[in-house]
């Protein structure tokens, strides 16, 4: 498992760095593809593998990210489509017993994966967005890496056994400490150099959001009775398993910049 995680990181991290650096259509297109696959992974256990509705919903989720690249107004338009079109679909299908659970699952996936994931594009399009995406993504990865390492080394007390039996209190503390350190280091070495009164709150909030994002996806998988969302990433599972924390941390950084940073 560890060897697979390292191999996946060795292949994936350079690609992530290059795409964030490039920005523009290449970056936005990659985000759309990632969201398309992750949204499908979310929908398939409920709606069935290669269900037309699952594929359609995944496409709507990816369209929100595409809309974020064109302009924020398009995010709203695609969200409206995401609220209406699945309802039309389940209505035309004519199965009252499955209509409500399928519709709520579909819209939940559009919001969870599509809307939150679209902030990867919104953040990159801001001034200095490239550096802030680097900070957000690699600080999130630091939380996951330090939590994994600390939990394996000294983890004893279960954090949330009913949701994710493998997570420990010690691992979570180690992950949050690693995430805090990475935010502070990225703030300095990437050149943002926000004063302590601004960056310290973000350095505390981002790791907390990362932990909650991880636990949230674990709860969803537990509810769907699956171990991993997919198998596309050896050692990690699916794309949704890899970006569960990022779906929470990227919006935190985006709105921190919009609302807090002068």
Topology:
Elements: H1 2-22, H2 24-47, H3 52-70, H4 72-93, H5 96-124, H6 129-154, E1 158-160, E2 164-168, H7 169-189, H8 196-224, H9 239-243, H10 246-259
Antiparallel strand pairs: 1-2
Helix pairs in contact: 1-2, 2-3, 2-5, 3-4, 3-5, 4-5, 5-6, 5-10, 6-7, 6-8, 6-10, 7-8, 8-10
Q: What structural keywords apply?
A:
single chain; 262 residues; mainly alpha; 10 helices; 2 strands; 80% helix
Write a compact overview of the structure shown.
The chain is mainly alpha-helical and 262 residues long. The protein contains 10 helices and 2 strands, in the order H-H-H-H-H-H-E-E-H-H-H-H. The chain starts with a helix and ends with a helix.
| Rg calculated over all Cα atoms | 18 Å
The tally of structural domains comes to 2
| Secondary structure tally, helices | 10
Query: How much of the sequence is in beta strands?
Result: under 5%
Main sheet attributes: strand count, strand direction, barrel closure: 2 strands, antiparallel
Uncertain spans, ≥5 residues at pLDDT below 50? none
Order of adjacent strands in the largest pleated sheet: 1-2
Share of helical residues:
over 70%
Order of helices and strands: HHHHHHEEHHHH
The overall pLDDT, averaged over residues, is 91
The first-to-last residue Cα distance is 44 Å
Number of strands: 2
Q: Report the principal-axis shape.
A: globular
The secondary-structure class comes to mainly alpha
């Amino acid at each position: 498992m560890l060897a697979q995680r390292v191999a996946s990181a060795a292949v994936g991290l350079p690609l992530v760095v290059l795409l964030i650096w490039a920005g523009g259509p290449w970056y936005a297109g990659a985000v759309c593809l990632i969201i398309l696959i992750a949204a499908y992974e979310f929908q398939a256990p409920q709606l069935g593998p290669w269900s037309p509705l699952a594929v359609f919903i995944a496409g709507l989720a990816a369209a929100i990210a595409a809309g974020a690249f064109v302009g924020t107004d398009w995010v709203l338009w695609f969200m409206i489509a995401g609220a209406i079109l699945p309802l039309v679909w389940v209505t035309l299908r004519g199965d009252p017993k499955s209509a409500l659970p399928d519709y709520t699952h579909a819209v939940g996936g559009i919001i969870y994966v599509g809307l939150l994931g679209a902030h990867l594009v919104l953040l990159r399009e801001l001034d200095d967005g490239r550096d802030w995406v680097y900070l957000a993504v690699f600080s999130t990865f630091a939380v996951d890496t330090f939590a994994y390492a600390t939990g394996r080394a000294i983890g004893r007390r279960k954090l949330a056994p009913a949701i994710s039996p493998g997570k420990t209190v010690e691992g979570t503390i180690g992950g949050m400490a690693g995430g805090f350190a990475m935010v502070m280091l990225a703030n300095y070495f990437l050149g943002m150099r926000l004063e302590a009164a601004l960056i310290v709150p973000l350095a505390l909030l981002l790791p907390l959001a990362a932990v909650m994002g991880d636990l949230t996806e674990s709860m969803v998988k537990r509810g769907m009775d699956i171990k991993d969302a997919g198998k596309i990433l050896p050692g990690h599972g699916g794309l949704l398993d890899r970006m569960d924390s990022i779906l929470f941390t990227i919006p935190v950084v985006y709105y921190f910049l919009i609302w807090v940073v002068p």
